[in-house]
Write a structure and sequence with these properties.
- By secondary structure, this protein is α/β, with parallel strands linked by helices.
- It has two domains: 135 residues, Creatine Amidinohydrolase, Chain A, domain 1 (3-Layer(aba) Sandwich); 244 residues, Creatinase/methionine aminopeptidase superfamily (Creatine Amidinohydrolase, Alpha-Beta Complex).
- Helices cover 33% and strands 19% of the residues.
- The strands form four sheets. A six-stranded mixed β-sheet has the order 4-3-2-1-5-6, sandwiched between helices. Strands 7, 8, 9, 10 and 16 form a five-stranded mixed β-sheet that branches. The protein has a three-stranded antiparallel β-sheet with strand order 11-14-15, with helices on one face.
- A hairpin with a 7-residue loop joins β9 and β10.
- The relative contact order is 0.12.
């Protein structure tokens, strides 16, 4: 993404901050790189600082041997060579009074990058620091028109890849062939790749007892699919273009004409928890009433508890989606790392309640966008009944 200075000034001002301090060395802070569109290939062996102001141009501090690292960002550049010069530049750049936002958080680990030593240095210069987590969710956690297009294009491919893989699985089973988890994973990978998508990891395809592991990874060819096996798909990918946005979905099938009773009970529970989350989001957006990620998680989680599956809940209801599959926006989470941030315009996130018992587990996952004040569920349609081989 490219830096939108006007938007940055607005969210800094509305957040009650004097500025937003972005700091990086060795590309440790991906938020800083993404905000300023700094490629990871660009050498970053010395600290750089960019102070985004609520009412003025950015001010940059960079080392003389890496003087060009932020040259694409507007504003004044202060060069330094020594630690003393770096501190003097910071002292000059930092505003007196007010509060500066920075990339650290005691509640949202994914957005916590500023190291303790640098925080101590900033405070020694008289700076009052505060977490930038709300600024991050309103910037990196909000898709623009191209981001929405990119996400929705990827979502369509993922839905088609699941449908294609299941259709082939059914044909192979009818023809009496032995099918393994690795076979199905390979079909999905080929479908994604041929459509021009990429991913940071292979999709999850787990069968039988392997579905009880939320992050199961196929070893070699994996297990052979048996009659009656539950099959869990979890697939995420994005276009092969700079700034492309991921899509991330999970679907369920059973190698039988119909699910077994326990399989059906679990599916109904996670499906209804997903729908409870969707209903809350739709109601709140229709009423223009704020809703946090934690609130959505609590509603979905309570549905699973009410069905008697408390012991099977192992993860949050959903996560932000962006250029990373687990993005920097608001997560649907009230237990792991409670996220009380408000879901706002442009948010893209998954809704994926899951249950995991000793013998099997499952989740159903959809992706949602908030666009024009309404909830948009991307892809071709959410799953209301399990896939079968009938």
């Amino acid at each position: 993404m490219s830096l939108d200075l006007q938007k940055a000034r607005t969210i800094i001002r509305e957040g009650g901050f004097s500025g937003w301090l972005l700091y990086n060395i060795f590309h440790r802070d991906e938020i800083a790189d993404l905000m300023l569109d700094v490629p990871r290939e660009r050498t970053n062996t010395r600290p750089w600082v960019c102070l985004l102001s609520a009412d003025g141009p950015p001010l940059k501090i960079v080392h003389r041997i890496e003087a060009s690292i932020l040259q694409h960002v507007p504003g004044e550049t202060i060069l330094y060579s020594t630690g003393a010069e770096f501190e003097a530049a910071l002292s000059r750049a930092l505003p007196r009074g007010g509060t500066i936002a920075a990339d650290y958080s005691s509640t949202i680990p994914v957005g916590s990058y500023l190291d303790h030593g640098t925080a101590l240095l900033l405070r020694s210069l008289g700076v009052s620091l505060a977490p930038a987590e709300n600024l991050v969710s309103r910037s990196l956690g909000a898709l623009d028109d191209e981001g929405r297009r990119s996400h929705e294009a990827a979502a369509m491919v993922l839905y088609e890849s699941v449908a294609g893989a299941w259709a082939r699985l059914c044909r192979e089973i009818r023809d009496g062939r032995t099918i393994t988890e690795g076979d199905v994973q390979e079909w999905v990978l080929r479908s994604i790749s041929s459509a021009g998508l990429m991913s940071d990891a292979p999709p999850i395809v787990g069968a039988g007892r392997h579905t009880a592991d939320p992050h199961f990874s196929v070893d070699g060819r994996g297990a052979a699919l048996e009659q009656g096996d539950l099959v869990q798909f979890d697939i995420w990918a994005k276009e092969r273009t700079p700034g492309a946005v991921y899509a991330d979905i999970s679907w369920l099938g059973v190698c039988a004409p119909s699910p077994a009773p326990l399989q059906q009970r679990l599916f109904e529970a996670v499906r209804d928890a997903r729908e409870a989350a969707v209903s809350l989001l739709q109601r709140r957006l229709a009423d223009a009433t704020p809703v946090s990620g934690a609130e959505v998680d609590r509603v979905a989680r309570q549905m699973l508890v009410d069905r008697g599956f408390t012991r099977g809940i192992k993860h949050r209801t959903g996560h932000s989606i962006g250029a990373r599959v687990h993005g920097y926006g608001v997560n649907l989470d009230s237990v792991e790392f409670p996220d009380e941030r408000i879901l706002t315009e442009g948010a893209c996130f998954s809704v994926e309640p899951g249950l995991y018992l000793e013998e099997l587990g499952m989740r159903t996952e959809i992706d949602c966008l908030i666009h024009d004040g309404k909830l948009r569920i991307t892809g071709t349609g959410r799953q209301f009944a399990m896939l079968t081989t009938a």
